[in-house]
Give the backbone structure.
Amino acid sequence: MKVGRQSKIIELITENEVETQEELAELLEKNGYPVTQATISRDIRELKLTKIAAENGGQKYIVLQPPEAGLAEKYVRVLRDGFLSMDTAQNILVIKTVSGMAMAVAAALDAMHIEGMVGCIAGDDTIMCAIRTLSETPKVMEKISRIVSRKRREEPVAVRGPELSTAGKKEPETGRGAER
């Protein structure tokens, strides 16, 4: 409920010029989130909202860049540096990393809050990620593949699994000696 409400608050202050906590409470109520003033105040503090001058001469709430924003690029860099390949087993995503990097890459993946990824556990060079549903697994793989491939334009990302690119897969042999 809290995450949904806070997401709605961000959406509402992005789409509307919300000047007061009372206005925000009314908008939340209209959108199915009945709240108290204390809850609004706590959400504003947790979301690090602040007020700036609005075009109408009043003020409006905005979201400050979270302090973790600078960490996002560090997480991406850790993922790119440690990633070797990935494969699936139903809704479990198995990621191979450089030896000794699995814990760091798993922590980076968890910090990225990729939609559909429930959590990761890591060994030395292997990570197992639980994906919420089987149908979300290809989407999560594609998201990770896009993040990793931004650095590795010249080399394909080794990916195996349903409905994904064939990078890292061998084509079936044809011609003489194909039936071994």
About this structure: The radius of gyration is 22 Å. The chain has two domains: 2-63, 69-159. The first strand starts at residue 49 and ends at 53.
